[in-house]
Amino acid sequence: MNKSKGYRYFVWFFRIFLLAFVLAPLLWGMRTSFSLTNYDPRIIPKEVTIQNYIAVLHNEAFYTSVLNSIFYSAVSVALLLLIIVPAVYAMTRIRFGGSRIQSPLLVLPLLPITVLLIPLTRMLNLAGLYNTRLGMILVMTAFQIPFSCWLLKGFFEVLPRSLEDAAYIDGCSRIKCFFLIMLPNIRMGIITTIIQSFVYSWLNYLIPYALIPDRKLMSVSQMLLTFQGQYGTDLKLLTAASLLMAIPPLLLFLVFQKSFIAGMFGIESK
Fold first, then answer.
1. 124-134 average pLDDT score
2. Which of 13, 135, 197, 217 has the most CB atoms within 10 Å of its CB?
3. Confidence class of residue 270 from pLDDT cuts 50, 70 and 90?
4. φ, ψ for residue 194 (rounded to 5)?
5. Which pLDDT tens digit goes with each residue over 248-258?
6. Where are the alpha helices (DSSP H) in the chain?
7. Could you read off the pLDDT of 199-224 as tens digits, one per residue?
8. How far, in Å, CA of 194 to CA of 65, rounded?
9. Closest CA to 191 of 256, 95, 107
């Protein structure tokens, strides 16, 4: 009994420690965003203000970057789904030449992005896509294809082939079966992919930094650099902008929380 009780105490202590470890940077960032000075050593600032948030919200560059990020993320997600959903269906249901080496091919693009940035930038420059929205979207989408294919592949594989066979017997073509039978049964996987892709595109910093030098085309993650000056960083505005930047992915996760968790663990949401 004592051993079981001690184990429960340990589990609760570990949970509290883990929660504090995760929330401490967020709470400190919130504290800094409401402070009047950059280097207030107090845990609770002597004076609390919302002027930092007002200053960020009145910053035209912040609005422009948010709209750019929404555009990049939304179009990347749509393009990604158009590519990977039929591709993964073909990989799991259709036999074709080279289908047995598809798994290694999914791993090859998972190279460190820093290794590819210089040649990628040169290629986009030669193609006339450097510092353009189209080039940004194409690269963002391409880097998400391997993981998204791997993520969605499991949802197709668990579907019994008897579903398709019954549809074919009833007169469905392969395309009709794909849209009416397969897609509704992998909706959790599609929702999971949408959330994962949107968050990746929204928070990604390295790709926009390398491909978009134009301030008018900057993403919101790039825009945060504008709060870093030559002689210092305005931590108040930086933390306020960072917390505002985190709102869209958080809202997306809260809206589709059950579907996302069910999709990650392969559980049908009820």
1. 92
2. 197
3. very low
4. -60, -45
5. 888 888 887 77
6. 2-33, 51-57, 60-93, 102-107, 113-127, 133-157, 161-169, 174-177, 183-185, 187-203, 206-211, 220-223, 235-245, 247-255, 257-264
7. 999 989 889 988 998 889 999 988 88
8. 21
9. 256
Global model pTM greater than 0.70: yes
Cβ atoms < 10 Å from Cβ of 192: 24
CA 172 → CA 19, 60, 156, 165, 185, distances in Å? 51, 53, 18, 9, 16
The answer to whether 61 and 223 are in contact (CB under 8 A) is yes
Q: CA 67, CA 86: separation in Å to the nearest integer? A: 29
CA atoms of 183 and 163, how far apart (whole Å): 12
> Does residue 212 contact residue 222 with C-beta atoms inside 8 Å?
yes
Q: Residue 35 phi/psi, 5° resolution? A: -90, 155
The amino acid occupying position 62 is F
- Residues forming beta bridges with residue 179, ordered by sequence position: none
For 31, residues 6+ apart whose C-beta sits below 8 A from its C-beta are: 43, 44, 45
